Structures are given as structure tokens and as C-alpha cells.
């Protein structure tokens, strides 16, 4: 169905009907000039926002709309968890070009709702409008936390341990894989103009053995489990952020805002087997991918040295180094013992 | 300066340096995974968001970037006031194509900051990224109010008086004027290919006598003054919203959500002299423009009949009709006494 048939209000009605507000702090969702929230007594409010543009942040050639919706929500929830807070609500704004049908947007929304349900988050408002070209998605997430629980980027202190959750570089490798298969498809189409429809119908991208990489790229998960495990273990990170632009870039943020240096050990950086195998197949340096790939949505945090025993009992967290005095620099210690100054080579959407 | 020279972080630093957080509820603005807000005790939180796309919502051929930034903020603040609440913070996300320079974005931001300063609102976060074509602006505004002060759309009751602030249709007429002068310019360029540079340099659009219409289109003001005057007079509206899509469309929202009807009198609809003159010049029906033009950002609200004397003392507010039983319909009573069912013909960005 064409979106023009429904119009703005019709489409909004269709997308937002049956939205069940789960959070006790949601008083009024979609349907007035504003959403109305009732913050839990004593909490502070966290706000983060993200704008995703077709052709810059995602390629609909290989990203299914449902996955896109899911991921667009997850990356915002990840920012709330990275403050050691709990997400409660999101708003969703969409600008949609004519190539999309009502069913397409329902797919996108289904992915968003799935991500929200998983994290008990309400969709409380937004804006739906048209765009001349492509799709734009703007999400704002709102969370809450008790003041003493909130973790900023600037609290890392000398001798603190540097920790990361999960493993790094897999999402970036998943993107390389998708790009490779897209290139194969494009070249097959170009080489056989006569039966291009056959290729369109029959083309099967080859992802075998690399399913995990695809999942990390297409369906990242915000690490609420880590936040919960830390709370349960009584560990309060001194600084924290999520890894969206690459470990290197994020480490530099923590160090510069905390006015400290760091020493990170290459052999401690957690990697999945598939990440290493794919890097070898593509003749890329796996450490570079893990340091600069980005889109991991894992948590990077520092803890007092006294929590060393406690952190080792938490599954899926690894200590990769420690915090030093600022004048010692931000150093990567390689497998062979050589040392390099870390550089932020993370993804720069404006370059 | 090209934006690529600065990169994402450099541009953000440049735009957000010297941002002074004024609101006591702003604990942490730009610079971490999230902004951190401390809601005033006992208040509820209001959230509204808007996504503006170049070519759909604005035409940079005749909208200066500073005005665009100012308006983009104002329309969000207007939504907060329309709940009878006070705006405190905004986040600003921008997607920028290559045609824009650093100076352009600084102009846009200067307009945003001006609007914020006027209303004591802090810019606490956002996202800055690139776009393949044109500019996208997504703003989320956050406000607060004591629970009993918040006014929804669904509280209008039979015999309530229907009020509007300011005057209607002027912004729409301003847009017609801008479109007309753009068409004149385009035709001059087309008719004289040889010296088009001269025309580009020398063309002077003719806005004389219609400056107020331009101001209403390019520099709308959110009506905090009306909210304050109502509070001072002890008037608590039973329902309220701001007029962004046209009086007709908004009246229908209030009536359907409140499950009531209305009678609105054509001769009571407030018009500026310039709006009427421009409508005559363009051979348009001025009432249609006032009912359906949109972008007025005036307040539409209902009050108990007992507040009749009090409302008449408030400057720049007019009673245009009253609320009836639902089964009596939503009626416009024309100057000649004839009656018409109101229709929402407001601007539909998806049609």
C-alpha cells in the first residue's frame, strides 16, 4: 500500500495502535503535543539521541528493514546502559521517501518494537514525515538512574583496571562480508545484461561459517546483562562508555576526559574466532579491526584495582589493561612487546 | 571551511563550545554517552520531537540558515508550552550534505542558540553526521510541569469557550509570498541565459507592505507570554494544543479526543490586516487560509465558561466559539449565517 493513501495521521495511527506502555513512568505516550513522563522519585534523567541516514549509516541493499529498526533502537539503549542507567522510553522520528510502502515501514517498526519489548522500553512519541530521497531515522532514548549510580567518562583514576565486555571487531567484519557479497552480486549483474533478472532471483550470498559476524553487524544487543552483573557483584565502574566508534577512539575519550593515560595489551583484546578467520581471509590485521572497527556496542569501563577478583568472576568481561598517569600517554603494548601510541581512527561520518 | 577538515568531533566541539547551561535541572550537557538532567522535585517530564527535511519542510533558496535554526527550535518549544509546561532542554541532531560549509552550520546553530537563550533552554546533546543530499534537522525538547498544571487535548467540555492567541494565516501567506518571489526570480533567470549572473546578483524580491507575513513564516515565536498570562489570571485551560497544521485540523483533534463538538464563528477568527490584503492580492479566501494554512504556532485552548470575564482581559487572546455535545458536529458558522462541517485540510507531508 502506498503511504500517500494513509497520509501522516493514518500512518501514525497504524504504526502506534496497540502500543502498550509498560513503564510505570510513562503517563501519556503518542497522541498529544508531548509525551508525559513521571520520573521515579529520586532519579535523574538520561537523554541520548541518534540520527541515521540511508546511504550513510545503512544500505538497504543488504540490511532488512526489521533489523534496521531493531539496531536503530539498540544503539540508543546502549548509550543509556553506558551511563549505568535504565532506559524507559524512546521517541521515533522517520522521514520516508516515495519508494517505501506502508508494509516496509511496518517492518521497520516491528524491529523497533521488538527491541523495545526486550528492554521494557515504551515508544512514547515521534514524528513521521516525507523525504525527497531515502530514509532518515531519528531516535531519542530516555532513561533514569539514582544519582550515585550514574557513571560518566571522566572518573577513571591511576591503577584502575580497563575492562571490555564481549568481543570486538566482529560487527566491522560482518560489514566487510556484506560489502563483499554485494560486490559479487553487482559484478554478476554487470557481466550478464541479458539474464540479469535470473541473477536477481537466484543470487545466494555466501555467508557460511560467518553467521556470527552477520548477527553482530545486523542485530547488535545492548549489554544490559553486564550492567546487571556489575550491580549484582557490587562493582561500581569509575568510568564507562559504549564502543560505537572503535575501542581506540573510546579509550581516548575516557583518558582525555579523566585526564589519565592507559596501557592496553594487544593479546588481551577479546576476539571471536570468526573475526580472526575473516580478517585472515580478507588479509586485514585483526587487531586494527578490533581497535578501530566500531559498531561493537560493547561496554568499555574502568574499575578500582580492588575489584580485580570480583570482575574475574563475571562472565564475558575481560581486563585489557590499566590506567596510568596522563604523561605516560595512551599506549598499546603489542604481542612482541613493542609499544605504540593509540590513535583514534574510528569511523568519521563527516570525512 | 569544509566540514571534512574538522571531522565530526571537531565540528561538535566548535558548535558546542561556550554553551552555558542555564537551567538548574541540567547536570551534564554535551560530552558523554547521555545528557543527565535532574527533574525539579514533584514535576513530570514533557518530551516532544520533530524531524525537518530540506526540500520538504524548508527551501534554503529563501530561508536563511539562522532563521531556520531559530524556527526549528521554536516549533518544539511551542509543543511544550501547548501542554502548559516549561521547556528546559533540547537535543539537536543534524545530517549535513557536502554543499554546506562550517560557517553555514555555525549560522544554523546561532539561530538555535538565540531561540534557546530567549526561553532559557539548554542544548544538552545531539548527533552530527553526514547526508547524501540536503540537510536534516531533528530536535527533541524536554520540559517540566507540576502534574496538576499539565493540559491535554482531551479535557474540553460542553459550554467551554474556544480561544486562540494572536492571529492566524499570516505564516501561510508569508510562504505564498516567498514562493511567488522565487517564481519571479526563476523566470527571470530562465528568460535571460546570457546574463543570469547579473540577475543572481541584482535580484531584489518585493516584500514591501508584507514584512509581518515574512516574519511570521521565517521567525515564529512560541507563546510563553500567553501561558504566563493565563497562569497570572488564574485560568486553567481544560484542553490546549498549538496550531501547527491549521486551526481546522487542530480543532478536530481536540473535539475527537475530548469527544465533543464545536461551533466556531468565521467572523471571530483573528486575522492580521496584511494577511487579508495578501489573500485578496492572490485571489485566495482568507478564511480558508486561516483555517488550513498552518505554521501559526499560536495556542488553541478551551476554558470554562465561568472564565469568560477573566479571558477578555488578556491581551492577544480571542474567543472564537464554544464546545457542544459531540452529536452536534464540528461546525463553522460563516459570516452570512450558513453552517459548514469543519474539515481537516491541514498540510500533509506524506501526500
Word description of this protein:
The structure is a homodimer of 351-residue chains. Chain A has 351 residues and is α+β, with helices and mostly antiparallel strands. The first copy, chain A, folds into 2 domains: 3-149, 2-Layer Sandwich (60s Ribosomal Protein L30, Chain: A); 161-174 and 215-341, Alpha-Beta Complex (Phosphoribosyl-aminoimidazole Synthetase, Chain A, domain 2). The first copy, chain A, has helices at 3-16, 65-81, 102-118, 170-191, 196-202, 211-218, 224-232, 247-258, 273-281, 286-292, 308-312; strands at 26-28, 35-37, 44-53, 86-96, 122-130, 136-145, 161-165, 239-242, 261-265, 299-303, 317-324, 330-333, 339-341. A 7-stranded mixed beta sheet of chain A has the order 8-10-7-11-9-12-13, sandwiched between helices. In chain A, a hairpin with a 5-residue loop joins strand 12 (330-333) and strand 13. The two termini of chain A are 38 Å apart. At the A-B interface, helix 1, strand 2, strand 3, strand 4 and strand 5 of A face helix 1, strand 2, strand 3, strand 4 and strand 5 of B. Strand 3 of chain A pairs antiparallel with strand 2 of chain B, so a sheet runs across the interface.
Give a quick rundown of the structure.
Chain A contains eleven helices and 13 strands.
Key phrases:
homodimer; 351 residues; alpha+beta; 60s Ribosomal Protein L30, Chain: A; Phosphoribosyl-aminoimidazole Synthetase, Chain A, domain 2; seven-stranded mixed beta sheet; four-stranded mixed beta sheet; 36% helix; flat
Number of strands of chain A: 13
How many separate domains of chain A? 2
CATH architecture annotation name of the largest domain in chain A: 2-Layer Sandwich
Please summarize the sheet with the most strands of chain A.
Answer: 7 strands, mixed
Instruction: Output the structural class of chain A.
Output: alpha+beta
Q: Which word captures the global form of chain A?
A: flat
Mean pLDDT of chain A: 93
In what range is the share of β-strand residues of chain A? 15-25%
Radius of gyration of chain A: 22 Å
